[in-house]
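User: quick one - fold this with zinc ion bound?
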Amino acid sequence: MANMMILIFDGISDRPVKDLDYKTPLEVAETPNLDSAAERGINGIMDTIKPGVIPGSDTGHLAILGYDPYEVYTGRGPFEAAGLDMDMEPGHVAFRCNFSTLEDDIVVDRRAGRIKEGTDRLAKVLNEIELGVDFLFKEGVEHRGVLIIKDSDLGAKVSDVDPHMENASLHTSSPIIKGAENERTSQLINKFTEMSIDVLSKHPVNLEREEKGLPPANVVLSRGAGVVPVMDSLMERANIHGAAIAGIPLVRGVCKMAGMDIISVEGATGGLDTDIEAIIDSSVSEVQKHDLLIVNIKGPDLLGHDGDAEAKVDFIEKIDSKLGVLEKLEDVCIAYTSDHSTPVTVNNHSGDPVPITITGEGVRKDRVSSFDERSCGQGGLARIRGTDVLNIMLDLVNKAEKFGA
Ligand SMILES: [Zn+2]
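Assistant: Sure. Structure tokens for the protein plus zinc ion:
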């Protein structure tokens, strides 16, 4: 039976742009390979979560994997933690963190000069803090990190310590919704923040930085609290073995929480410099080894956030130029889609539906011959939700189970 691949061009979907003659970047870009897929496939548009709801990359990917984000998602922390391979159990609470610079209780640099060296040594002393409960802090790329409080009876409906802007004072976390569990989490995170200042301020790594005129990483700012959810794996839910190729830790984390293997591809950075050819080459071989392969290419989202329509058009063409080899995968059911729109006119995600094309044996080919937001809307899939994708593909490859007798 055929295997499945879902190609997620992060944020590729857009709105009509005045400077592009009221076309979208995807409509303007020359995309012979995506258009050929649309011509061979069945097409539609997709509300990743539901109409008008703006997906994050985490909730969008959860929905595409068939999970109800409203059931499993309380915050980004746990998925970032999974992306860093941290051990955790359902009920623990995880936070995204930044090493930051504090001057007289004012956050003067949220990224501590994008500190690159010594964060492992800072993490070591943070993990020695006496918080009264089990916890684990792990440093990530540059100034980033994740904190997991490993205890039960914790809530995640708490405000952030991180003020989310510079030259603002440190916030005190408090419950957003009243309740003993949220209260407890707020108290613990406030205590951790205070103690992080104590142990980091005099740390040799920071004394050295100050000597060199660099901003010290003298506080840990946390945000995005989330309760680690109970998530049945794709194997348990649909009897499929999944794997993922993704440059950014958040998406790797979501896929890991779904019980998928994470495949590292040299050069797949999650940035604009990512090696698209290497990603696609590796996808072609990996899809033979797994029932389902998820491939995330992040670039279009970054350019949507930048509001750069022309660069987005160029990047879309660059992606398309590497997709030709996929046409030869005749026995693979492939979905070409996105996790959400990132319109260049919005500089952020939006709730506009995204185009989707599914190719493979047995699809009811329609009359669409161009992969873009408006053309796909004329196709045979019509308008679906993110949680429908995997069901539709499982059916096409004859791996779905009958409901009823
Ligand atoms: Zn984004």
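One thing worth noting: The chain has a mean pLDDT of 96.
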